[in-house]
C-alpha cells in the first residue's frame, strides 16, 4: 500500500483515550531519559508486508495516535533529533518491553510507547555492528607508519571520562570498554570524553598507548567528540547515532 493511499485512512489525534485505544488505532507517548514528554518525535506505524507507512509527530505532551489502520501486520518506530554542541544527532527511540518490537495487528487497538535511551542493545538488530545499539561507537584507528601492527587477536581497552554533560544533559560516568584492536568500541552514550588507551596483546601483556582524535599530536590522553552518523532522521531501523574516531599508536 503506497503512502498516499494509506494517508486518507488516517485520523491523527493528540489525545490518548482514557479507556484505551479504539479498534484500528495505535497510540502512545514518547519520553526522554528523565521521563519527561518529547514533542516533535517522528513516529512510524509501518506495514510488515505491504509498502507505505503511517507517520505522525508527537504533540507537546509527547503523545500521538494513529487510527483507521487496516487489520494487517505492523511494526512501530520513532526517531528523535537531538542537538548537541552545534550538531544534530538522530536517535531511534527504544520501547519499554522487548515484545513491543514484534509485529502486531491493531485490530483491537493497542499502545506503543517510546523512550530515549542513550545506550543498550536494540532487540532484533545485529549485536556485532554499531547499528545494533542505541549508543555511539568509537572506531579504533592505527596510526600511519608504525613499526608494529595489531593482530586479529589483540585488543585495546579504552578508559572514557566524560568532559561536561552528555547529550541529554546528564553528568554521565567513567566507562571502560575493550574491543578488538582492529575493530570499534560499541554502545557509548554520546558526549565529549577524555580518552586513554591500553593495548592488550594476545598473550595478555598490557601496555599504555598514545592516542589522538586525528592522526597527529599523540599523547597519553585525548579529548574526542562525536559526529552524527548521517543526515536522515527517520526510516532506519538501526542505532549508531554518532561516531568518534580514536587514533592510537605504540609508545
Automatic annotation (TrEMBL):
UniProt key word NAD: no
SUPFAM superfamilies in the record: Carboxypeptidase regulatory domain-like (SSF49464)
This protein's UniProt keywords: Carboxypeptidase, Hydrolase, Plasmid, Protease, Signal
One Pfam family per UniProt: CarboxypepD_reg
Signal peptide: 1-21
Molecular function per GO: carboxypeptidase activity
Record's keyword annotation contains Transcription regulation: no
Protein name (Swiss-Prot/TrEMBL): Carboxypeptidase-like regulatory domain-containing protein
Amino acid at each position: 500500500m503506497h503512502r498516499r493511499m494509506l494517508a486518507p485512512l488516517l485520523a491523527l489525534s493528540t489525545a490518548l483515550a482514557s479507556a484505551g485505544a479504539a479498534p484500528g488505532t495505535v497510540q502512545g507517548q514518547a519520553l526522554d531519559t528523565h521521563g519527561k514528554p518529547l514533542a516533535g518525535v517522528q513516529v512510524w506505524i509501518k506495514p510488515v508486508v505491504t509498502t507505505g507507512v503511517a507517520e505522525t509527530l508527537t504533540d507537546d505532551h509527547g503523545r500521538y495516535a494513529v487510527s483507521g489502520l487496516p487489520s494487517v501486520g505492523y511494526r512501530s518506530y520513532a526517531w528523535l533529533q537531538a542537538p548537541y554542541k552545534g550538531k544534530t544527532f538522530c536517535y531511534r527511540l527504544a520501547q519499554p518491553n522487548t515484545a513491543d518490537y514484534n509485529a502486531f495487528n491493531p485490530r483491537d487497538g493497542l499502545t506503543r510507547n517510546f523512550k530515549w535511551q542513550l545506550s543498550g542493545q536494540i532487540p532484533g538488530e545485529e549485536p556485532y555492528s554499531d547499528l545494533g545499539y542505541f549508543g555511539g561507537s568509537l572506531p579504533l584507528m592505527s596510526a600511519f607508519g608504525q613499526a608494529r601492527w595489531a593482530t586479529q587477536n589483540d585488543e585495546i581497552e579504552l578508559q572514557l571520562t566524560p568532559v561536561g554533560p552528555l547529550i541529554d544533559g546528564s553528568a554521565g560516568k567513567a566507562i571502560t570498554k575493550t574491543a578488538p584492536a582492529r575493530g570499534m568500541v560499541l554502545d557509548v552514550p554520546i558526549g565529549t570524553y577524555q580518552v586513554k588507551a591500553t593495548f592488550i596483546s594476545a598473550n595478555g601483556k598490557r601496555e599504555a598507548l598514545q592516542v589522538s582524535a586525528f592522526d597527529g599530536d599523540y599523547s597519553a590522553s585525548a579529548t574526542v567528540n562525536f559526529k552524527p552518523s548521517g543526515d536522515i532522521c527517520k526510516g532506519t531501523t538501526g542505532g549508531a547515532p554518532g561516531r568518534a574516531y580514536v587514533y592510537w599508536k605504540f609508545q
